[in-house]
């Protein structure tokens, strides 16, 4: 999800830009919320599910009587086509033509970064469901992007969560790292894991590198790791390479637990690695569909869309509910009042966990989910709270 997608122009309003059922399309009687999602293009699966979650949240609020004294919410959607340039154009259209009071989306970090100059210029709050890159909310110089917020935790936090799970639940003391040397996502998670793991007095016994999209034979680095006999191997990559690494590790007789980040959930990892190889593996995610705490949301999502919910739908739902709660807390549709309400969000109960926004970074402090693979199926293992 930390993809940096670039180039593109123009935007396209989807049929979902029409007023919601029962809503009157006049500025005085409705409140417009925009959705800038990847509805076509390379990551359309992410965007469609995020938009589903957003629309379900709005439907539920409208059915409960709306907000600000009974005003209905109208969802206005725009397709960024999975391209950064299109995301900029979609954001411009939602603000200048559709007159939205806030925006939910995009899903990827690259498309979210492309929206920042527009929302900053026009002073309209944006909440990304899954843009995990730290630069979405905080610039290189440490200044906060005033109009940007997120419903998900950031990349480095996943490394911390993974290390705490390894320490507190799996009770391991020796770890090995396998890192994509050109991937900021992998390096960020690995650095955070190592820092947390070693701070607990435990040892990282090996750190091996590969190049995603280029390397397919990992036996040499895995043989080096096997000689160090770690209790756990942390592999914070994406499903294609990770699947091959897991498969080859098991073929070499490595039985240690293998752990990763949410990149594992971006594709059919079991098809690459094989069911048996994936036993005793775990990864960090934002939500698990079989987590008992979100059973009601899952049922409502499946009833609405005839498909199971996942983290993209859940975070699209949470991001929208966060924005709506901020509008209600502000008591108006004034953009600055909404921004301040988002910045001081505390104790917001989302389906992905309780969310408290850090005013200095606009990042949420929240729990993460650990999923475990058992006989080819991923199942809820536990929630890990921030420390």
Automatic annotation (TrEMBL):
Pfam families on file: Peripla_BP_6
Taxonomy, superkingdom: Bacteria
GO terms of biological process kind: amino acid transport
Keyword terms of this UniProt record: Amino-acid transport, Signal, Transport
Gene3D superfamilies xrefs: 3.40.50.2300
Record-annotated Leucine-binding protein domain positions: 31-376
Family per record: Belongs to the leucine-binding protein family.
Protein name: Ethanolamine utilization protein EutJ
Organism listed in the record: Desulfuribacillus stibiiarsenatis
């Amino acid at each position: 999800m930390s993809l940096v997608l670039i180039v593109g122009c123009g935007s396209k309003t989807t049929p979902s830009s029409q007023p919601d059922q029962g809503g009157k399309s006049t500025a005085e009687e409705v409140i417009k919320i925009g959705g800038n999602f990847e509805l076509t293009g390379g990551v359309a699966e992410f965007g469609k599910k995020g938009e589903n979650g957003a629309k379900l949240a709005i439907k539920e609020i409208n059915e409960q009587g709306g907000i600000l004294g009974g005003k209905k919410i109208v969802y206005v959607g725009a397709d960024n086509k999975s391209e950064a340039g299109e995301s900029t154009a979609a954001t411009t259209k939602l603000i200048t033509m559709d007159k939205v009071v806030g925006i939910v989306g995009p899903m990827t970090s690259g498309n979210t970064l492309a929206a920042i100059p527009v929302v900053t210029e026009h002073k309209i709050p944006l909440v990304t469901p899954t843009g995990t890159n730290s630069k979405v909310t905080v610039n290189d110089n440490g200044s906060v992007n005033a109009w940007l917020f997120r419903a998900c935790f950031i990349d480095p936090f996943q490394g911390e969560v993974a290390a705490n799970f390894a320490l507190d639940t799996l009770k391991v003391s020796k770890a090995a790292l396998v890192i994509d040397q050109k991937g900021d996502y992998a390096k960020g998670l690995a650095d955070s894991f190592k820092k947390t793991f070693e701070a607990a007095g435990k040892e990282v016994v090996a750190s091996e590198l590969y190049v995603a999209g280029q390397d397919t034979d990992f036996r040499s680095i895995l043989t080096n790791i096997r000689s160090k006999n770690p209790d756990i191997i942390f592999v914070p990559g994406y499903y294609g390479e990770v699947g091959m690494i897991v498969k080859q590790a098991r073929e070499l007789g490595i039985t240690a637990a293998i752990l990763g980040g949410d990149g594992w959930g971006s594709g059919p990892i079991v098809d690459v690695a094989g069911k048996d190889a994936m036993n005793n593996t775990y990864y960090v995610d934002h939500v698990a569909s079989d987590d008992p705490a979100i059973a009601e949301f899952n049922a409502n999502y499946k009833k609405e869309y005839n498909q199971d919910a996942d983290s993209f739908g859940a975070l699209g739902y949470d991001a929208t509910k966060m924005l709506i709660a901020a509008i209600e807390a502000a008591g108006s549709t004034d953009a600055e009042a909404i921004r301040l309400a988002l910045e001081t969000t505390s104790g917001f109960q989302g389906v992905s966990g309780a969310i408290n926004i850090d005013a200095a970074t606009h990042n949420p402090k929240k729990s993460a989910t650990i999923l475990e693979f058992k006989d080819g199926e991923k199942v809820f293992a536990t929630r890990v709270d921030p420390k």
